[in-house]
Structures are given as C-alpha cells and as structure tokens.
Amino acid sequence: MAPRHFRLACRRVPFKVVFFILLILVPICVIGILTHAQLVSYILRPLWDNPPPPFKHLPHYYAENVSMEHLCQLHGWSLRSEPRRVFDAIIFSNELDILEIRWRELHPYITKFVILESNTTFTGIPKPLFFDSNRSRFAFAKEKIVHGVFSGRIAARGKNGNPFALESEQRKAMSGLLRSSGISYGDLIIMSDADEIPSPHTLKLLQWCDEIPHAMHLELKHYMYSFEFPVDYSSWRATVQIFGPYTGYRHSRQTDLILSDSGWHCSFCFRQLQEFVFKMTAYSHADRVRRNEFLNYSRIQKIICSGDDLFDMLPEEHTFQELIKKMGPIPHSASAVHLPSYLIENADKFRFLLPGNCLRT
C-alpha cells in the first residue's frame, strides 16, 4: 500500500510547486553551498579529513635557580663540558617588533642570527626589504647577523603567484645561506618563523645537555593579535635540530618528538593596522581574503579587540568536540606572567602586545 499512497501524494503536488523547487530552490542551495564552500568544508572536516599522527611529548623540566646538571639529568641527558653553538634561522617578512623581542630575548645564547628576506611576498607582490632598511634597530646584534636577500618573482598584474612554490624556493635559499654562515656539524639550528620564539631556558637546556634527540619540534603557547589572547598549545612547526650533512631548512613535520611548553607563538601581533593588511595579502594563505571588506581597518580593529577570526573562518579541527569547543572569539586573559622578559622590561614600548591595549594605530 505504501508505494500506491506515495504515487497518489505526488499526483496531488501542484506543478508550480515542483517548478519552484527545481528551478529556484535547488539553484539557490547550490549557489549557497559554493559561496560558502570553505565554511561547509571546515564544519565537515571531522568527516573527510584524518588527523595527523600524534606527537610524542617530551616532558620539559625547568625552575629558577635549579642547576643545569640537575635539569639535564631530569630529562635523561648528561651535562656537556661546553655549550653547543646555536644558529637561529628565519625567513623574514615585516615583523620588526616581534623580531626585536625575539633577538633581544635570545641574544645571549645565539652564535649567529641567520635572516633571509625577499623583495617580493610569497604571493608575488613587490615589497621593501624591511629588515635591511631598519638595520640600525638591530645594531646590538650586528656582529652576529648573517643577512641574505632572495630575488623573488613578481606575479602577473591582477594575479597571485603560487605562494607555496615561492615559499619553498625561499626555504631552499635559506639552506644555502646557512651553509655560508659558518655553521658546522654538531651545531644546533633553530628553524622557525619570526613570531615562533623559543624561550631562553629552552635554548640553554639544549645547549648544555648531551644526548638530546637529533631533531625535535618545540611546543609553543599560541597567542593571537597580542599576549591578551592565548589560544592553546597547538603550535608545533618550530624545530631544533643538530646540524648534519643532510640538514635542510624546513617548516614542516620532521619528527614525532616534541618538547613540551618551549616558548611563545604570537600570530598577527602587529603594532599598526596596515601591517595586518600587508600580512593578510602577502602570506601563503592570502586566498583566505575572500572579500575586500576583510581588509577594512575598522573591521580589523574590532576583531583585534574581540578576539574573533580575521578571515571569518572556523577552527581547523579534526573532531566535532574540538571544533565546537573552539568556536567563537578567543577568551581574554589578564595575565602577563611567563612572557618574554624583554617585553616586560620594555612594556611602554610594546604596550600593544600586553593585556588591555588592543587599540592600534
């Protein structure tokens, strides 16, 4: 009886209703899905994307006034007779404030600061050599700086270059710059972006302890816009590695080992609104700027103070539980404890990075 009743019900549906559904509602639904494809994709990510293999977290021991020998022993390592040389290698765009904090914080432990910058962005847009034109700001590290310039390719007018291809070329160029910097086998190399800052006590530990892993990632506490908005401990791309004959400069997963709570990652932590716009259009994920209004100063300012997402995107999570937990703005924090010491010592200069100071020029 069921099929017969269904056929009778179909006969009673007016032709106009069927026409409306097929020619109007269906296209509207299709257009809506295509327009918001990224949103739909992120909502359904737990269904179509598998999470990466989990990291093996190495416990990280530290407290003030504890001897280095004891700290090495707690990690299962032994104390060296002299510290390793450390080379800090970054590809630089325009993060001058963060670079100053990074280099001031790490200066006592670094043998060479190796920095490569390009005359184009990853998207093929011409740009100034920001570091080269601000060298006087970093005169304190003059004797340790190895600076290189990468001649980028300018994208055709109205088009963006392949950002990941250009980024890959710069990372290969960095490998060459490293080899000319005086690095030797057995030295320690930090591979990270400028805003991924290892803590000084992490570097001191890896300098002085023997038998550390050949390569490990650094788990960094992730902040957005300033240290007022702590996100989580999901930042893992920063790597430390013992330099050897096959070492290449990478910003991707190299090992399953990660050293817990090893520093800070402050994303989009800029002083001026124009710096936000520059990065949004310059970095590898510039395709996230789906509408021109995303670059509006008043919109960006509102987002910086609310902790919302610059690109109106959902969290990139692999479980519905984590997706739901991280939806919405990042909660404010009033804590300025356990941050880079140079930041706290120069709080007036870097007030925009501290809680309660979200307004930008």
Automatic annotation (TrEMBL):
What residues form the membrane-spanning segments?
A: 20-44
Q: Do you know which Pfam families this protein is assigned to?
A: Glyco_transf_17
InterPro entries from the xrefs?
A: Glyco_trans_17
Quote one Gene Ontology molecular function term. beta-1,4-mannosylglycoprotein 4-beta-N-acetylglucosaminyltransferase activity
Q: Which GO terms describe its cellular component?
A: membrane
Report if keyword Nuclease is assigned: no
Please provide the record's keywords in A-Z order: Membrane, Transmembrane, Transmembrane helix
**Record's superkingdom?**
Eukaryota
Q: Which PANTHER family match?
A: BETA-1,4-MANNOSYL-GLYCOPROTEIN BETA-1,4-N-ACETYLGLUCOSAMINYL-TRANSFERASE, BETA-1,4-N-ACETYLGLUCOSAMINYLTRANSFERASE FAMILY PROTEIN
Q: What is this protein called?
A: Beta-1,4-mannosyl-glycoprotein 4-beta-N-acetylglucosaminyltransferase-like
Per the UniProt entry, what species is this protein from, by scientific name? Populus euphratica
Q: What is the lineage of its organism?
A: Eukaryota, Viridiplantae, Streptophyta, Embryophyta, Tracheophyta
